[in-house]
């Protein structure tokens, strides 16, 4: 999504057609085409940066026009609310004018369990990139959707005024490196990786 090439994740239950969307940063019309034939249960947000949330409200509005069940926007932690309220300004600083502030129906907290018809996610607060960053972990499918905390071979930026590098590393070790090696990591940018790969080879974590 967007010129920043942020990964938006769509998880579909092929038996029911029900789906979740994680971090719709923009390009809502294109996303609506991809989601054609699915019933979206919720939109999940890992953190408040514009390239991850700038299309959330537009996607919810588009889905509301074509499905009878409501779509909730869930997450991140409330400590990112100041970023959600400044998406338009963030985006315009990058020359993007079609992204908008996001308005979650529910802010999540560390340890919360989100249950949907096709999946169950544990929420883990992992600050450092932003104060309210969370990751979503599905133990049944050995899957971690981690936003901008952990990437293949690197970690997320923490050089913002509100960033905390030591906190980021501690959070990754606490919430992600505690998982088994065979868990798949879906980052906010770039290619997927595995917990074991990052445990062994990520120079920021050794």
From TrEMBL:
Pfam families: Lactamase_B. InterPro entries: MBL_Glyoxalase_II, Metallo-B-lactamas, RibonucZ/Hydroxyglut_hydro. Gene3D superfamilies: Ribonuclease Z/Hydroxyacylglutathione hydrolase-like. Keywords: Hydrolase, Metal-binding, Zinc. Residues 5-189 form the Metallo-beta-lactamase domain. Its cofactor is Zn(2+). This is MBL fold metallo-hydrolase. It comes from Asaia spathodeae.
